[in-house]
Design brief:
Blueprint lengths: L2 H11 L4 H14 L2 H14 L5 H12 L3 H18 L2 H15 L1
Helix pairs in contact: 1-2, 2-3, 3-4, 4-5, 4-6, 5-6
Length: 103
């Protein structure tokens, strides 16, 4: 059984597990299936806006899709969430990605 199938199997037991959903989304990205990855990333952030790492990956996915303004908006949301959580490292990563698009 490959990694994606194992993650899907674990998700059947815990369908709202953000770690597993995020891992599955990253597997979709590796396969070039940005549509499914985006659905999962957005679902995670809808359910758990404090799941900070997902903002970066969603933003990068949107950049690849040419949706620059939407990527910027997600980076901004992520920076706000990281600031609330006191996660300086995540904030800096999001800020760098944001600045690369804005400036």
């Amino acid at each position: 059984m490959d990694r994606m199938e194992r993650v899907k199997e674990m998700l059947q037991a815990s369908p709202k597990d953000n770690f597993l959903r995020h891992a599955l989304a990253l597997e979709y990205v590796k396969q070039g299936n940005d549509v499914e990855a985006r659905v999962l990333f957005e679902a995670i952030l809808t359910d758990s806006p404090d799941y900070i790492g997902t903002y970066y990956h969603l933003g990068k996915l949107l950049e690849r899709a040419g949706e620059t303004q939407l990527a910027i908006a997600w980076y901004e949301k992520g920076m706000a969430a990281a600031k609330l959580e006191g996660s300086r490292h995540a904030y800096n990563e999001l800020q760098t990605a944001y600045e690369d698009l804005v400036y």
